[in-house]
Amino acid sequence: MSAGRILVVDDDPQIRRAMRTTLTGRGYEVADARTGEEALEALRSGNYDLVLLDMNMPGMGGIETCRLIRSSSEVAIIMLTVSNSEKDKVEALDAGADDYITKPFSTPELLARIRATLRRLPHAPEHGDLKELDHRGVEIDLASRQVHVHGRASRLTAKEFDLLSYLLARPNKTISHRELLQAVWGPDYGDELEYLRVFINRLRKKIEPDPSKPEFLVTDAWAGYRFHLPQ
Amino acid sequence: MNMSTASRARSGSDSVPRKFIQNAIWLAARILLSLGLIMVVTFLSFRLLPVNEITAGFLYLVAILFIATVAGLVESTIASIAAMLSFNYYFIPPIGTLTVSDSRNWVALFAFLATSLTASQLSARAKRRTREVVDRQNEIERLYSLSRALLLTDATRPIAKQIVEQIAQAFESPAVALYNRGTGEIFRAGFDDPAAIDTELKDAAVRSEFLHDEHRGLTITPIRLGRQPIGSLAVRGASLSDAALQSLVNLVAIWLERALSQETLNRAEIATRSEELKSTLLDAIAHEFKTPLTSIKAVTTDLLSDSAAGLEQHQRELISIADEGADRLSTLVTQAIQLARIEGGKFQLNRGIHLPGSLISSALRQMKSLTDGREIKVCVAEELPLVFVDAELVQMVIAHLIDNALKYSPRRTPISIGARMSDGHTIIYIADRGAGIGEEEQSRIFDKFYRGRKEQHLKGTGMGLAIAREIIHAHGEEIRVSSKPGEGSEFSFSLPLAPRGGE
To answer: Cα(B327)–Cα(B130) distance, rounded to whole angstroms?
Structure first.
């Protein structure tokens, strides 16, 4: 059984070749695409667990491709960026990526990121220890990862779902940045505050009736985040 | 061009006396014609159809009014006296003499003279007014045609030069010169002694003084914008009223100012465009270099990772060499692009308000893989004020300095990083216990591609400190090194404080 199906999207043939060889060697099933358009086509016809998406591609760029993938799929996405700048990182995460890695990267680092992205919460919350939320027009169905806010339906990506369920399982308690990062992304993480900032924003857009005035996902400045559940 | 201006200038200076003589001849001719007219009237009234003295007096008056209207005051005054004498001689008894027998006739004679003089004066004044109105109208038309011509100026040529040409054309002036104080340029047309006129123009602009030289027919007017003198204008040969001259000068002031602001705008736009182009180009270069490096690194790191067992010792060694080479190349490309991006200080700072301590801890976090195994002492003074900096760039500076300290000090020695207040400045410092830097080298280490003489064998690009200095200078602050050979070095830089009231 394969460790997962990965779609490599990069316009450079050498990178596709190297990725295919490296990842196949680690037990992943690998397919590749040269452009954003090809990637969308591949995702329509096949089933993938993760997309490795280059940010700088001719034609439809990586960011635009990421947005289009996100509009119809919750597949995990790792962006490959050239620049290490804060702006590019946030742009990638904002477009819906789960993680990013800066070129050139080492294979062990890439494998660690892939594992972290595909990683699920160790204790899946579906086992009845968590009630579904149904409060003032906001419905979160944890089994199907469906969210309904005043009749507007959206689906959560796996990482968004894990983050939300971790907070939801500990209502009205401030969870520190480090704890959240290590629980949801893995033990190697802990300082990547921008991940939390972007993911919490993405969640707010999906579950808050008014994302600019969060009611449930509350920021506790300098400390962490808290899920506010009215008693 | 020079030849033609010179010859035009000469004809201009010659024309003054010639014009005077011409005017005198014309005046004499008009006086003769006026006297002729009086003679004709005398002949008509005395000989051709003899009339009484009252009719004759009216006929003389009509003739004088006609002369005053057509010619001028001088002509009509002379004609009045001639008419008075003729009237006396031919019509007032005793006829044929210039004597008057009846004292009542004296009254009549003087009444006639007074009437004719007053009438000629009135009509001459009316004529002068009319001419003035026509002149003003003419000036306004010229100013209008000038302002219209200035609207069609050619953006590729100096505006001041075009203004000079257009004034010379619109006012048919043989010589015009304009001094633009903002650019220090002087444009002339038609002056045969450029040096002299240049001095006069500059004087007029500096002193903001008006100068009119009747003899040379030259007027020099300072050009002001508000109360600020921005240049001066010299016009020769064109007789302009004060009002017209002021309008002309105002028009020139507006155009000079317009040209100046246009130029400032253009310069700013060119700078922005070239900055954008540079940035795009550097992004493209970074991408092109990093793409092949990515595939090399993917391969070498995969082979070297633990799970890829089965490599012989010498194979592992060879792959390590390739891997380190790729790392080095990657650092080189990254730093060369960083340096190119920030060199010359022309880049956008993305400033925000930050805690000095968090800048240090973020930088240390980024360097985690490199600082592993080294003792790092962090010491941030308490209650430091907030700083107003581009956090990403300042973290880059700290990272370069840490990297430097790691490279130039022995593994077992600690590295101290901290922030403190000194003379009202927030200072961040990074100190090592390496070999130190000799005094003669201290001034050169921030130069691009300079590397310590003893450290040529170490991996480095020689760009890190140059990048650090550019970034700190862009913030308007200073970076310095203090070092004692044998004891270590301390690099420190100051940071701008956040404005009061910021949080």
So the answer is: 91
Distance from CA of A137 to the nearest CA of B (A): 37
Please tell me if residue A22 touches chain B, with a CB cutoff of 8 Å: yes
Cis peptide bond upstream of B94, omega within 30: yes
| Contact status, residue B497 vs residue B387, Cβ threshold 8 Å | yes
Beta bridge partners of A138: A135, A149
Q: How many CB atoms lie within 10 A of CB B108?
A: 18
Alpha helices in B71-102 (DSSP H): 73-91
CB interface of A with B, residues 74-103, below 8 Å = 80, 82-83, 85-86, 103
- Tally Cβ neighbours within 10 Å of residue B282: 16
Whether residue B28 contacts residue B74, with contact meaning beta carbons closer than 8 Å, is answered with: no
- pLDDT tens, residue by residue, A131-173: 556 666 777 777 777 787 777 778 888 888 888 888 888 888 8
pLDDT at B87 over 60: yes
Q: Give the length of chain B.
A: 503
A20 part of contact set with chain B, CB < 8 Å? no
Distance between the two ends of chain B, CA-based, in angstroms? 66
Helix (H, G, I), strand (E, B) or coil at B436: coil
**Dihedral pair phi/psi, residue B445, rounded to 5°:** -65, -20
How large is the C-alpha radius of gyration of chain B?
45
Contacts of A92 (CB under 8 A, 6+ apart): A55, A62, A63, A66, A79, A81, A100
Distance, CA of B248 to CA of B239 (rounded, Å)? 13
SS3 at position B408: coil
At B259, the pLDDT band (50, 70, 90 cuts) reads confident
Question: Which phi and psi angles does B96 have, rounded to 5°?
Answer: 90, 0
pTM (2 decimals)? 0.60
Instruction: Report the C-alpha gap between A138 and A206 in whole angstroms.
Output: 10
Are B302 and A25 an interchain contact pair (Cβ–Cβ within 8 Å)?
yes
The interaxial angle of helices A86-94 and A193-207, nearest 10 deg, is: 30
Is the peptide bond preceding residue A104 cis, with omega within 30 degrees of 0? yes
Between A84 and B427, residue with greater pLDDT: B427
Contacts of A191 in chain B (CB under 8 A): 365
B176 vs B167: CA distance, rounded Å: 7
Task: Report whether B114 contacts B143 (CB < 8 A).
Answer: no
Q: Which residue of A has its CA nearest to B326?
A: A104
Q: What is the CB-side half-sphere exposure of residue B41 using CA atoms within 13 A? A: 28
User: Does the beta-carbon distance from B302 to A12 stay under 8 Å?
Assistant: no
B414-466 pLDDT, tens digit each: 999 999 988 888 999 999 998 888 887 887 888 877 766 665 555 667 788 88
Helix ranges (DSSP H) in chain A:
13-25, 36-45, 62-72, 86-94, 107-118, 158-168, 177-184, 193-207
Q: What is the DSSP string of A197-228?
A: HHHHHHHHHHH-SSTTS-SSEEEETTTEEEE-
Give dist(CA B255, CA B317) in Å, integer. 74
Among candidates B200, B186, B256, which has minimal Cα distance to B225? B256
Instruction: Name residue B307's amino acid.
Output: S
